[in-house]
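Practice problem. Given the sequence and the SMILES for flavin-adenine dinucleotide, write out the predicted structure.
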Amino acid sequence: MTSVIVIGAGVIGATVAWELASAGHRVHLIDARTPGDGATRASAGVLAPYIEGAPASPLRELGRDSLERYDEFIARLKDDSHTDVIYDRRGTLELAMTADEATRLSHDAATLARDGVEAQWLSGAALVDLDPNVSRQALGGLFVPIHGSVGVSSLTMAAVTAAVERGARVMVETGAIDVSSQGGVTVRTAQGTLTADQAVMAAGSWSSRVTVQGADPLPVKPIRGQLLQLGGSRGLLRRVVWGARGYLVPWPDGTVLAGATVEDVGFDERTTSEARRSLMEMAVSLAPALANADIADVRAGLRPRGPDNLPMIGRSQAVPGLIYATAHYRNGILLAPLTATLVRALIEDESFTPPAPVRPDRHGTRT
Ligand SMILES: Cc1cc2nc3c(=O)[nH]c(=O)nc-3n(C[C@H](O)[C@H](O)[C@H](O)COP(=O)(O)OP(=O)(O)OC[C@H]3O[C@@H](n4cnc5c(N)ncnc54)[C@H](O)[C@@H]3O)c2cc1C
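Answer key:
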């Protein structure tokens, strides 16, 4: 059994803490605020590696691997937490509104089918049969049935609950200040000092603000995303609908999430009226009936982005007991099951090497 301090209780820290506690490790999960309050709170929870990752890219491969783990991950999480987790695998429908988009998406459908991924190009009429309220302006769409979405707050809270049931301790309003190699790993916080055999840096965009003794600041920056929750939309959409300017995610409570902006504005988590306007416009362009929906909520979160948009998962060079699990940018929810598995392997086996595209030392900084 290893003692581990997990720094940050967003979706990544929470699922890592649960994975480690399930394996019998002694876990301390600490958060500067409360669990799930970072980018995780704003996330739409779409699971779509074949949209997010370009063909043959590392992101697509990592996302494919993680998506394959999702059914088992959610079933185990529901069992361990005794709570429900919103989870839907009815696929994504990516709309082509221009001739260029139609050419690209029909080509994508053929490429995916050739690679053995179930995917279909649908003409305008077939599209409306599948999801009657999508825009009639669409020339067609790419249907990927294995994609889906997950309720991110329910997932994160279930992971925290399951971790606690397996003996993890959660400390809120306990922000890490620095990490050093004394007596295993020492994490200094505003509330005192914690020591353990190993630690995991899962503080999302804030990971670069925690000093790691002997390491360069981590090249992770915040990219704000805003998202609307639209009320009065029950039954309007059957699955995630995607377009060039954003996406719509139907929820079991009858709301639809409309996201998301991509803004380089530093550590600013405020919402803006400009985002309300542009997201509402985007939503109506994909599903015109949403023009009558009311805005029930607006959320903003800071996506943790590294230089190549890929996560950093691996051991620190400067503090060997520290493992990074951060910089998941637009796909932290999709990549959570894979990340938790990799972190557990790193904790349990000093010689384990994660896949090259996620190793934190690839950016040439001392980690
Ligand atoms: C609008 C929007 C839509 C998105 N949609 C999707 C999507 O559809 N699918 C998908 O896969 N991903 C999506 N994402 C991305 C996804 O939300 C992120 O990749 C993911 O939430 C990152 O999780 P995290 O746990 O690394 O970071 P966070 O959720 O930001 O968690 C970091 C935690 O660390 C804590 N913390 C900060 N500083 C310290 C400290 N010093 N010590 C201790 N704790 C600290 C914070 O309080 C926070 O709780 C979206 C993001 C946004 C903003």
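Check your answer against the key. The CA atoms of residues 40 and 175 lie 17 Å apart.
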